[in-house]
Specification:
The protein is about 35% helix and about 25% strand. It has 2 domains: about 220 residues, P-loop containing nucleotide triphosphate hydrolases (Rossmann fold, 3-Layer(aba) Sandwich); about 60 residues. The radius of gyration is 23 Å and the shape is elongated. A 6-stranded mixed beta sheet has the order 6-7-8-3-9-10, with helices on both faces. Strands 2-1-4-5 form a 4-stranded antiparallel beta sheet. It has a 4-stranded antiparallel beta sheet with strand order 12-13-11-14, covered by helices on one side. It is an alpha/beta fold and about 300 residues long. The chain contains 10 helices and 14 strands. Bound molecules: adenosine-5'-triphosphate. The site of adenosine-5'-triphosphate (ATP) has 12 residues, from strand 2 and helix 1.
Length: about 300
């Protein structure tokens, strides 16, 4: 099957700065894909190249098999991008904006689909409101609607839920999941790692223009061994016998890294011997956030070893 997105040795420089460092990436059709990374990692640069807004310095990128430069129109038609920045045309109403956007893709009589999008994004009541009169969250919803007017098989959402309230977030994800189950490929960048973990089945992590992890969400999250044991104790300090244990203080809790469940018994018996009582105990499985933080730490250590400054 043709991959939804295929990127080969793709690089982008801004002067001396390497925003993308010869990356290879294949996103299968039908995936719900998370593109993660800290600020400045290169996510938006990659998206801009795919959307034809930025020219790569070298390498190739294809959307549904169409080269984003040589076959720009075909590639662009297959892609819907929700940009990170709130850009909108202040002169038009919500509905007019969507009709005009449909026109860019040569689509006439798009009313039924526009109504459906407006409904799912809870914008029906604002259909005749001027775009400039919308709240920030509503403007973001309009951007999402604009990206969907031509029913693109590949949808890229760059931080789509920034500034969107909890209720709408839920209904937005339901809609996006519905589109994914109908066969649309979804690529999501977000700093809300919980959202990415719940929704996406594959993930790439970018750091300083390089892909430092690429795997299924399940494999990536379970690549980290061990658990976090959180303890609230009657004493502020850990007993001497536990001082060397990998741990940190988080509010009232001591957060301890343990390898396996047998460690729990060891820790509890040390506490009992030291006459320290446990007021609250929580055991946390590794999650995407733990893995992400570790990956960022490892990448920094590798950079230091290679003499790269952060
Ligand atoms: N037009 C530009 N001119 C110069 N440098 C740029 C330009 N656009 C991006 N950069 C730089 O390229 C690097 C990658 O930026 P990019 O916006 O792709 O990161 P990002 O992963 O999307 O970050 P964020 O999570 O903050 O959105 C950054 O160091 C940024 O400063």
């Amino acid at each position: 099957m043709i991959p939804a997105i295929e990127v080969q040795q793709l690089g982008k420089r801004y002067g001396e700065l390497v925003a993308l460092d010869s990356i290879d990436l294949r996103i299968e059709s039908g995936a719900f894909f998370a593109l993660l990374g800290p600020n400045g990692a290169g996510k938006t640069t990659l998206i801009s190249i795919l959307a034809g807004l930025t020219r790569a310095s070298h390498g190739a990128a294809r959307v549904m098999g169409h080269d984003v430069v040589a076959d720009y129109r075909a590639a662009r038609k297959r892609l819907g991008v929700v940009p990170q920045e709130l850009v909108y045309d202040p002169f038009f109403t919500v509905r007019e904006t969507l009709v005009i956007q449909s026109g860019y893709f040569g689509i006439k009589n798009n009313d039924d689909w526009i109504d459906e999008i407006l409904h799912h994004l809870d914008l029906t009541e604002k259909a005749h409101a001027n775009a400039r009169a919308l709240s920030g969250g509503m403007k973001r919803r309009l951007l999402i609607a604009q990206a969907l007017v031509h029913k693109p098989p590949v949808i890229i959402l760059d931080e789509p839920t920034a500034g969107v309230d909890v209720d709408l977030r839920q209904s937005l994800w339901q809609f996006i999941q519905q589109l994914n189950s109908q066969g649309h490929t979804i690529v999501l960048t977000t700093h809300y790692l919980e959202e990415a973990e719940a929704l996406c089945n594959r993930v790439a992590v970018l750091k300083q223009g390089k892909i430092i992890a690429l795997d299924s969400m399940h494999n990536l999250v379970h690549s980290t061994r061990g658990y976090t044991l959180k303890l609230r104790l009657t004493s502020n300090d850990l007993p001497a016998a536990l001082q060397a244990w990998p741990s940190k203080q988080e509010g009232h809790f001591h957060s301890m890294q343990i390898e396996d469940s047998a460690d729990i018994g060891v820790i509890l018996s040390i506490l009992q011997e030291a006459d320290v009582r446990v007021q609250d105990i929580q055991l946390q499985q590794p999650d995407l956030e733990t893995v992400f933080m570790r990956l960022m730490g490892t990448a920094m250590e590798t950079d230091k070893a290679n003499g790269v400054s952060a």
